[in-house]
Amino acid sequence: MAAGRTISRLLGLWLAVSPLAVRAAEIAISCGAIGQEMEFCRSAAERWAAETGNTVEIVSTPNDANQRLALYQQILAARSPDIDVFQIDVVWPGILGYAFEDLTPYVPDAAKAAHFPAAIANDTVGGRLVAMPWFIDIGLLYYRRDLLERYGKPVPETWADLHRTAAEIMAGERDAGRDMWGWVFQARAYEGLTCNALEWVASFGGGTIVDADGAVTIENSSAAAAFDEAGSWIGTIAPEGVLNYAEEEARGVFQSGRAVFMRNWPYAWALANGEGSPVAGKVGVTVLPHGPAGRSAGAMGGAQLAVSRFSRHKAEAVDLVLYLTSAEEQKRRAIEASFNPTIRSLYEDAEVLAANPFYATLGQAFETAVSRPSGVTGVKYNRVSNAFWNSVYEVLAGDTEPAAALADLAERLRRMRGDGW
Q1: Which residue among 147, 187, 228, 399 is least crowded, i.e. fewest CB within 10 A of its CB?
Q2: Distance between CA atoms of 327 and 370, rounded to whole angstroms?
Q3: 357 phi and psi angles, rounded to 5 deg
Q4: Distance CA 265, CA 278 (A)
Q5: 5 pLDDT exceeds 70?
Q6: Which residues of the chain are in CATH 3.40.190.10 domains?
Q7: CATH class of domain segment(s) 140-299+370-417
C-alpha cells in the first residue's frame, strides 16, 4: 500500500543529488475548493514540503468547472510557468493533455496496476500518461433515513417513486410547520448539469449523447421522457432556485435539514455526518433511481493531478504528484473526508470501510456508471457539453419542450461534428 509513497521517496532521493535540486523549489499547485478539497490538498502538500525541504503555494481556482477549464486553457496557452501542478477534471485529459508532462517514466507498471484500469486509461492520451488519478467520483442519491422511517416509505428505486415520496414527505413536514423541500440537485447551467442530465437520460435508456462511434444519438423518445420527468420537479418537489444550484448549494439545503433527497458526489457524506451537522446520523446513501429502462446510472467523475510542461521545477512537481496520489495519502483522504480512492485495494481496507460503510454501495454504483462522451469528442467535448447543458436548462426553466430541445440539440451537435470529432 505504501508503493506510491516509496516511489515518491526514491524520486526525492534522486532529486537530492540532481542539479535540478541545488536549491529548494517553490511548487504552485491548483486545488479545488468544493467541500474539503482545499483543506486536504493544502495539508498534504505542506507535509510533502516539510519532508522534502521545498515550499508550496496553493492556488485557488473557481469551483465552477467551466470557469476553471477556461482559466487553465488561458494559462497553458500562454505557456505560463506560474502553476506547476494542476488538479483537473476527469474529462479534461483529452482537452489539456498536450500541455502536460508524460508521467510514464516515473510510474512503474505495478504502481499503475494498483489503480482502477479505467482511471489510468482515462488519463492516458496518445500513449502518454498525462495525469495521475487522485480520487474517483460517481453521482449518488442521499436521503433522510429518519424521514423515510417516520412516513413508512422505502428508499425509492425509480424516479417516479422519488417524486411521489418526496412530495408526500414534503407536504407532511410543511403541515407540521417545518421548512422542507423534497429534492435538490445540480441544475445550474454548467458541467454539473451535464452529469445530472446524463444520469437521467441513461437511466431512461436514452444513451449517452454521442455513442462510441461518434454518432449523435441524443434525439430519441427515451431522452425526451427523461427531460419531461426532470422538468416536472421544478417548483413542485424542487425549489425554483435549484436552477442556480451547484454541488455546494444543494448540499447546503440538504445538510441544513431542509430537503428529503439530494443528488451529489460522495464527498458530501463526511460533511453531512460531520460534527455540528444538523442531519448527522440521519443520512443514507444509495445508487440513483432508474427510469423505465431499469438501470441506475451515476455519472463518473473525479480529479487527477497533472504536471505542466512549462513548469520550471518538473522533477519536484512530479514528486509532489506521486506523494499526493499515493495509497497512504488516498487512504487518509478516504477515512477523514470520504474522497473515493482510485486504488482498488483500499476498498477492502478495514479502516477505510469502517469510516465509509457506504463503499459497498459504491462498488455497485461503479458497475453501472455512465461516462461522459469526452473520449470520442476529444477537444470538442467542452462545446458538446455546453450545448447539452444549455438545452437541458431551457427545459428545466420551462422555456422549451423536451422534443424540440432535443431536435435542436442534435442538429447543433451534428454541425459541430462535421466530418468527424
Answers
A1: 399
A2: 26
A3: -60, -20
A4: 19
A5: no
A6: 3-137+301-362, 140-299+370-417
A7: alpha beta
Query: Cβ distance 97 to 128 under 8 Å?
Result: yes
* Three cell numbers, residue 229: 420527468
DSSP 47-98: HHHHHHS-EEEEEE--SSHHHHHHHHHHHHHTT--S-SEEEEETT-HHHHGG
Give the CA dihedral 305, 311, 316, 320, nearest 10 degrees.
-20
Radius of gyration of the chain from Cα atoms? 22
Tally: H helices and E strands in the chain: 19, 11
| 298-328 pLDDT, tens digit each | 998 899 999 999 999 999 999 999 999 999 9
Would you state the pLDDT for residue 379? 86
Cell numbers found for residue 395: 427545459
Please give the CATH number for the structural domain made up of 3-137+301-362. 3.40.190.10
Which of 90, 116, 3, 108 has the alpha carbon at shortest distance from 344? 116
Provide the b/e sequence for 119-133 (b: ≥16 CB within 10 Å): bbebbbbeebbbbbb
Letter for the amino acid at 76?
L
- Rounded to a whole number of angstroms, the distance between the first and last alpha carbons of the chain is 40
State phi, psi for 108 to the nearest 5 degrees: -60, 160
- Residue found under cell 470501510: 353
Amino acid at 343: I
pLDDT in tens, 178-217: 999 999 999 999 999 999 999 999 999 999 999 989 999 9
Q: Which three cell numbers stand for residue 286?
A: 444509495
Contact 52, 5 (CB under 8 A): no
CB 350 within 8 Å of CB 49 = no
- The answer to whether the CB of 349 falls within 8 A of the CB of 331 is yes
Which residues have C-beta within 8 Å of that of residue 115, sequence separation ≥ 6? Answer: 133, 342, 343, 344
pLDDT tens readout for residues 218-271: 999 999 999 999 999 999 999 999 999 999 999 999 999 999 999 999 889 989
- Of 306, 299, 333, nearest in space to 321 by CA: 306
Average pLDDT of the residues in 118-122: 85
Among residues 186, 138, 208, 159, the alpha carbon closest in space to that of 388 is found at 208
pLDDT of residue 23: 66
